[in-house]
Design brief:
It is a single chain. The radius of gyration is 26 Å and the shape is globular. About 1% of the residues have low confidence. The protein has 13 helices and six strands. Helix 11 packs antiparallel against helix 12. The protein has a domain of 75 residues. It is mainly α and 432 residues long.
Length: 432
């Protein structure tokens, strides 16, 4: 006697037809969803032919740091948005042989290859400039999401943005706890040196800028919205400066606890179980130790820190080389010992080298190890407990979604960055 439902209730061609129906329905839902409109700030039109407010990095610049040839930029934009993807390899003019600076090793001496010859500074290409053309078959397509026009160079908002960038640069070696307290003592190796301004002074200067006191009718709705979001935590202080505007961004310390804590050892509370002598002291291996369980191995939250108080692009030749596309990757200098993220420079180092969704993956691993409850709307685990979550709505599903959303975000932001706005980087604005 054959058991009832000994096979799936839909199989074979019936399953294939139903799968097509659902995919077609999802396609129609995506097609009918509102498509966000992207508008630029029109500086590309208004400031031609030198494009000082636009992204010209990697193209040739003259001795004053200004774009050499208008045609270079026009060709660059065409290669981005042309229907022919081979334009980038056929039409772009490389800038290979006019760099002023020599790559240096960790001892600040000219870098040499295995034969003892000085290493020549290389030109680097642009990272996935046409990724915004790639279609997405799950979730919103990159063309379905938009971004507001960036503030123009003549606006008080742009002045505040630049003041924040360089204010944070002044404090990049000051521990986050010191910034919150309004102080300015930098970590420079084993020594502590005062910054040019302390955190209270930086915050006060930013808070006093025109953008925060300008009447509403002097700016457009985008600028008003951004200003309101910036002030959601109250006036700018050393505790609220440099933060984001998403819900919860103003709460707690600057650095997320997910970047500092760990999970308990999988070995449990057995006598002596889970004890670690890495990185040098016996550890009980609980959430305070900063080790995240990653299957049967662990992730140590202590990371490499870029050398404190060592700044780059502070002279004209190196700044201009970077604008011309010099490839200085792999020449970073680091602190001798790893540590938890302590300063803005540490956090920048983390973001410089992170594996895209690394922070989100670690946070998800921590929450799963903690047994954090899921939303009541999840169909699994079921209310009876008869069905528990795993392949659907469980750990494997959650972890796969963390990386799935990351790749879609990359395509969407590349579309905004290259296909539309092409906004100049902060160091280009500062250099001008």
């Amino acid at each position: 006697m054959k058991l009832p439902f000994s096979e799936p209730y839909l199989a074979g061609s019936a399953r294939a037809r139903r799968a097509k129906e659902l995919r077609d329905l999802a396609t129609e839902v995506s097609r009918l969803s509102p498509q966000a409109l992207t508008r630029t700030n029109q500086e590309e039109v208004d400031h031609a032919p030198k494009y000082p407010a636009n992204f010209t990095k990697g193209l040739a610049h003259d001795e004053y740091g200004v774009l050499n040839e208008q045609d270079d930029y026009a060709c660059f934009v065409q290669a981005i948005n042309s229907p022919n993807p081979s334009d980038f390899d056929k039409e772009i003019t490389r800038f290979d042989d006019h760099f002023d600076c020599q790559p240096l090793d960790a001892d600040y001496k000219p870098l040499k290859d295995k034969e003892g010859n000085k290493v020549k500074t290389q030109w680097r290409g642009w990272e996935s400039p046409r990724a915004g053309h790639v279609y997405e078959l799950q979730g919103p397509d990159a063309g379905a999401v938009g971004m507001a026009p960036a503030p123009r160079v003549s606006t008080p908002e742009l002045a505040v943005e630049m003041a924040e960038v360089y204010g944070l640069a002044i404090l990049r070696d000051v521990p986050f706890t010191e910034i919150c307290d309004g102080k300015g003592d930098r970590l420079c190796g084993k020594k502590s040196k005062p910054a040019q301004l302390d955190a209270n002074q930086v915050a006060a200067l930013i808070a006093g800028m025109d953008f925060f006191s300008a009447p509403d009718d002097s700016m457009d709705q985008f600028a008003r919205n951004r200003r309101d979001a910036r002030l959601i935590g109250g006036p700018i202080t050393s505790e609220t400066a440099f933060r984001g505007s998403t819900p919860g961004a103003m709460a707690g310390p600057y650095l997320s606890q997910f970047m500092l804590i760990g999970s308990d050892s999988r070995a449990g509370g057995n006598p002596g179980a889970g004890v670690s002598n890495f990185p040098g002291e016996n550890s009980g291996w609980d959430f305070r130790d900063g080790f995240i369980q990653y299957g049967s191995i662990t992730i140590d939250q202590r990371g490499q820190s870029a050398k404190g108080c060592l700044d780059y692009m502070t002279d004209w030749p190196s700044w201009r080389d970077v604008q011309n596309g010099a490839d200085f990757r792999g020449l970073d200098v680091f602190e001798p010992k790893r540590r938890f993220i302590t300063t803005p420079r540490d956090l920048a180092t983390y973001v410089h080298y992170d594996q895209l969704y690394e922070a989100y993956l670690n946070a998800a691993l921590l929450l799963l190890e903690m047994g954090a409850p899921t939303s009541k709307g999840m169909p699994e685990p079921s209310y009876t407990g008869h069905r528990t979550a795993f392949a659907t709505f469980g750990g494997p599903h959650v972890l796969s979604l963390v990386c799935e959303i990351a790749t879609r975000c990359l395509k969407a932001v590349r579309r905004q960055k290259f296909n539309y706005h092409r906004r100049a980087r902060p160091e280009a604005m500062g250099g001008g």
